[in-house]
Amino acid sequence: MISKEIRKGLRGLFKDSSGLMAVIGFLILIFYVVVAIFAPFISPYNPTQPSGPSLLPPTVSHIMGTDNLGYDIFSRLVWGTRMAFAIALIATAIAAVVGIPVGLLVGYIGGKTDRVVTMIMDSVYAFPGLILAIAIAAMLGPGLLNIAFSIAVVYIPTYYRVIRSQVSTVKSELYVDGARAIGAKTSTIIGSYVFPNVLPSTIVIFSMNLADSIMTEAGLSFLGLGIAPPTPDWGYDLAKGQQFILNNDWWMVLFPGLAIITIVLGFSMFAEGLDEYFNPNIGEKR
After folding, report:
1. Can you tell me the distance from the alpha carbon of 175 to that of 276, in angstroms, rounded to the nearest whole number?
2. Which pLDDT belongs to residue 175?
3. pTM for this structure?
4. 3-class DSSP state for residue 66?
């Protein structure tokens, strides 16, 4: 994933500045959240109806120009923010709801169950994420929930691997042994003693996966496997714009591309800042 390379660069750029990195990323995300919430008031035109001449370069009335159908690009970017957040949040939530409980339970139980489930998760994890998402999306067809599910399947092993690894360490701590000694139930031990100690990692993974989900969704839409047009979608608009780049209609590619880059950068910076804060020693070794 491109966002992984972005995060590697950010570690070197903001070394020992986790707070600053998290704040900058948070501000970027707040900006896009505000845009998504107030899209009806910010957007000057209907994003699914022509509002001017086709292929109009940026002007006062169309600050980001229009596409080949006369749609206002700025309006489509504003409304596309909602779609990006919706798919990313749903996909990441599904992955977390499945991956975290399975990682907790399997990591605590161990034994043959651990080996079998880990082998399955490793098989999914080893498969190229975008290719797997493409295969599932092609099988399920277009639609918000179908695309979100396609992306979620890719990230379930991420939650499982991290949570299971940490649970395997935490379950041998003295306070967990003490809970067992006083006869605490397995559900109580996992929920009250184990999960709180792996919670910081889940928050970091959630933020990172939001960035990756937006990139994956944009890739699916770019390939024609995302939300059906004319619904505003950054990946679809980017794919449509690249057809006209040789005609010097640069605005059709520039603005959707910048939107994808900046929101992924915001999530990546915020996640890396949290990671450095919660795991300072690990961050120094990377």
Report:
1. 26
2. 82
3. 0.85
4. strand
